Amino acid sequence: MASFALALALSLSAPAGAAPPPLGSAANQPYATGVRLIEELFLEPERLDAGTMLRSAARSAVHDLHWLQARYDPDGVDLYHGAGTPIGRVEVHDLDGLPAALARLEELIVGSGYDLGGVDVRLSVLSGMADALDRYSRVLADERLDRFNVRLRGTRVGIGAGLDWVGAGEGAELRVTEVSPGGPADLAGLHEGDVVLRIDGRSTVSMPSAEVGRRVGGEDGTQLTLTVKRGEAAEDVALTRAEVVVPNVGHRVLADGVGYVSIDHVSQRTVENLRAALDALQRRGALDKGLVIDLRGNTGGSMKESAHVADVFLDHGLLLRTVGKDGGRVQNLQAEMYAEADEEAPPVPVVVVVDDRTASGSEILAGALVELDRAALIGTRTFGKGTVQKIYPLQPDIRLKLTVARYLLANDRSISDNGLIPDVVVGRIQFEGGADGADDVRFTGWDERWQQVAWSRIVPEVHTGTGDVDLPVEIARRAVLHTEGTSRDAIVAQLQRQAAEAATEQQARLRVALEAKGLDWSPTERPVAGAAERIAAKVRLDAVRGQGDTWTLRATVANADPNALHQSLVELTCPTAPYWDGVVVPIGRVASGGSASGRVRVALPPGVDPRQDLVKVRLRADGRLPLAVGEQVLEGESTALPALRARAKLAPVPGEVGPHGFPVQQADVTLQNLTKTPIHGLEARFGFPGTDAVELLDHGARLAELGPKRDAHVTMLLEVGPTAPAVLPLSLEVDADRFGPLAGWPLALPVDGQEVVLQPPAIQAEAPSRSAPAGLYTLPVVVTDDRRVDHVVVWVNGEKAAWVPGGSEQVQLAPSFAIVAGDNRIVVQTEDDQHLVAVRVVSVRGEAEPETVDAGM
């Protein structure tokens, strides 16, 4: 009966005669434009489904508005308030009707009468629509759009100087970290190391980096004044904003006079910046022997400019071609790009250094140099983004970044998903000092991609803290130094020769380091057939919690092979727990019929509740490809994050005025540790004020320790102008050395001295067990607050499963929902009447029901 009543209420709330906004209406226009562009240009039209896009748009709005919930079916979406009040239904049957359906979705939410809390519903709906396409199509707006434009153009209006925070707590200073030659800052006499105290008279105390950028930026030709300190003296420096180049190319001279350039990202200024770097290296004689190009961490940029960068080193050949949907061309997108003869191309061997964050445009650059026989690669497999996005306006302040094509390198090579596999693969192995003085080993960057690479092909980059080098760059340097000519074959041959020598050196270092841990890392002396020769062995894992949040993971290999295993190691893959994912345990030699163990220590981050995670286990030995040896469950938990309570009030400081001549107020803040966990290195500060009538005079205060169930007092000074509101819009931020951010609370602080108490709600949400059969699951939740709980939201695997209103000091609920086989992430989120938010994450491993097998009996 209840479900019938709800269905009836839903139908009554959205009468059949309620027409959606007209197709040409202003409300409909961005949706109509977006859907038209997607229909005409999206690379994979077979993936387009109006219902999927509508549901994704609704999910985006449900995510952004805590009170909004939805039920989804193939024909549409039913919207309702979390308390059960229906809002309306939206249906869609094809792409032609999708713009009107999206506009109707926005209209129902905005017209519902419920508090939107500053959420831009249109932006939310558009973003959800794009999320349904692929991982690269996005809607850009506000700061995200500004950052994208700056990155793409390679220029911005500013002062031509880098400003960054150096130090922490009371010692934090906003310093000039670099000055661009010939820019406004250089012309005004600003120097690297200057401390910026004020921007146009506004104190920089606690000013976020984004706010610094906003205040320093502006219109071309406008004025601003920085108050800077050099030594003990402070002076005002007047500057005129202008368009300045965003630096993205660095350069230096390596040993033996080899040139080196690093490219951070690819913009419309990269070719210009690169040529300037090459000219500087040429003047120093560093292009006579070879060049190393470092693209590690370069996530790409402009496709066209990436090809132009490759053209700097090439004089002929197809750089790339683009293919749109159905194999056709894309309007206003270059179909083919060819290298042009250039007498200035440096005639030296080139090696490119890449990693798993080398993506998109930087893969075009690296791939073009490889396919046109101009360079060799070293590092790790690249990201594998082989598609092209273009930007289209939906309305003046919103853009659609849409996947419209894939690109193919010369020889029709596609890098989608697979990436570029280097000619020499390097894997980093880090030895780190433990709490007891012993060294732990970390194999970093080892993930599923290593499954296709035999250990014998990986050059270990061993870091022990003594004699460490940047091995990929060093091997590349040696290779170009000893290569005659510029052909790829010659460069690859020398690169592999130098890599083999480096591998011998690094294996010797690795053997010494592992033998110090009691492991026999001697290599096998017998020939190994390769991947076809399987390893006959079993692996057992044991994880034991040690001191603090450090766990000792022990792997034991039992060898059933007729031959001894050498240089064996165990690899873990665990997408649900990043601290287990990619862990590698070195074992060493395992005698035939015997067993051997190795161990590593794994530090869990604070705040991990008791949980179980399923890890995939692989075994390597004798330089062979890894063998999957099954799955095992690992337990894990760490120290709970401390809970804090704060009291704050203002009091005038008699006779003291601030820099602007207005009265100074002292904020007295009492911090109380509500838990049994001591907090070391605690820092409290006010966030940047929400009004220009208030100026912070202190960066904050630091406490060496706040003991369990103890409190401590700190004071901070503010200058309060006559136009300040009666209640100051502040925020209280608290960090700790071990735990990181503990609080970021809004603080409405009355000028009249009234005390304000801040204590976020407390959430009790204990899972009955760490694992349960997949299916219906009930989680008891109790939320308490010192004042009033406003609402509670429960998310299960990214979907909103429950919403309940508050209204009192305590709220109890027991939502039931479906859990699936594998990891289930349950998030309980609550907010009180002071807009203080608390979150609790509960993980439950769903156990699949055993299969029923018919034996035919």
The total of beta strands comes to: 50
Outline the low-pLDDT stretches: 1-21, 851-857
Rg result: 31 Å
User: Which range does the strand content fall in?
Assistant: 35-45%
Average pLDDT for all residues: 86
What is the number of helices? Answer: 13
Distance from N terminus to C terminus (CA atoms, Å) equals 46 Å
| Helix content bin | 10-25%
Structural class assignment: alpha+beta
Biggest sheet, open or closed, and with what strands and sense?
Answer: 8 strands, mixed
Q: Tell the overall outline.
A: globular
Question: Any overview of this molecule?
Answer:
It is a single chain. The chain is globular and about 80 Å long. It is built from 13 helices and 50 strands. Helix 4 packs antiparallel against helix 5. The strands form 13 sheets. Strands 13, 14, 15, 18, 19, 22, 23 and 24 form an eight-stranded mixed β-sheet that branches. The protein has 857 residues and is of the alpha+beta class. Helices cover 19% and strands 40% of the residues. Helix 9 links the parallel strand 14 and strand 15. The N terminus and C terminus are likely disordered.
